[in-house]
Structures are given as structure tokens and as C-alpha cells.
Amino acid sequence: MLRPHYRVELVDRWHGEPADAMVALHARRSAESIQRWAAERPGDPLAVVLTGTDLYRDIHIDAQAQRSLELADRLIVLHERAIDDLPAPHRAKAVTCFQSAGARMPMVKTAHHLRCVMVGHLRSEKAPQTYFDAARRLPARRG
After folding, report:
1. 76-103 pLDDT, tens per residue?
2. Domains of the chain, residue spans
3. Strands of the sheet with 94-96, listed across from one edge
4. d(CA 54, CA 114)
5. C-alpha Rg value of the chain to the nearest Å
6. Residue 53 near residue 60, CB atoms below 8 Å
7. pTM of the model
8. Please, where are the H alpha helices in 13-110?
9. Could you give the 3-state DSSP secondary structure of residue 56?
10. Three-state SS for 45?
11. pLDDT by residue (tens digit) across 101-114?
């Protein structure tokens, strides 16, 4: 989204390369780069995009993630209610940026079987077993 208007570089860590602004993904995972940016580039824009892991775990228990919230000029969340999950002192600097995808053609439904897709990084904290348990509870279908 930014490339049509700006020169964008994607990096795993910021080591002091020239830049006008930083947009960091993950308060905890990017904490080192966020702290370095704030120390070396005071006054230059710093935005932190908060993920579910940040919102529902890290910012409540991890000191580095909490520090990232303090240092950020802007916090970006991916749904409106996520702002409510932020500590009160940081809510004013939060904005919602909705995720989106282009419209897709609907598939023709069949009565013979269930088509479904599960999308995500299926790590334990997202309880992927829930999907499989739900599928097992569906009534058996005869073709």
C-alpha cells in the first residue's frame, strides 16, 4: 500500500539504515528495532502494528512489548474493538487499519460434501485442534 507513494524496504531488524519512518510489525518481536529507532531517531515517526499475539498476550506480560507501546507515535490495530484491549494510556494513539482482500468469485456449492478452508499460522495458542474437533461434530453425509 505504501510503495506507490514511498520507497519501502522490508527488513527483519533495523540496524540504523537511513529511513524517514519506521512501521514495525509486532510490539515484542520488533522491540529491539523499536528501541533502537527511538534512541537514534527521536522525533522521527514510529508506528507499531499490533498483532493478536501482541494484543491478547504480550503487551500484558512482556516488558519489552509494553515499552514498544510507550515509544510508538502511532499504534495500528486490525479491528475496531482491538483498541479496547490496549492499556488506557495508549488508546489515543491507536488507529484501525482494516485488512482486506479483493472480491472472490463464489464457488458453486455441492450437497455431496463440505468444502471448507482453514487459513492461519496454526500454532498452539490459536487452538487449531478446535477446527478439527468441530469438523468431527458435523453430521455424517451420504453422497
Report:
1. 999 889 999 999 999 999 999 987 777 7
2. 22-96
3. 22-25, 46-49, 74-77, 94-96
4. 34
5. 20
6. no
7. 0.77
8. 31-40, 52-53, 59-61, 63-71
9. helix
10. coil
11. 777 888 888 887 77
CA distances, 90 to each of 26, 29, 37, 71 (Å)? 15, 19, 19, 10
Question: pLDDT for 40-78, tens place per residue?
Answer: 999 999 999 998 889 989 999 999 999 999 999 999 999
- 95's grid cell: 488507529
* CB distance 25 to 49 below 8 Å: yes
d(C-alpha 2, C-alpha 15), whole Å: 21
Question: Which residues touch 72 (CB under 8 Å, ≥6 apart)?
Answer: 24, 27, 34, 46, 47, 48, 90, 93
The C-alpha atoms of residue 52 and residue 88 are separated, in whole angstroms, by 18
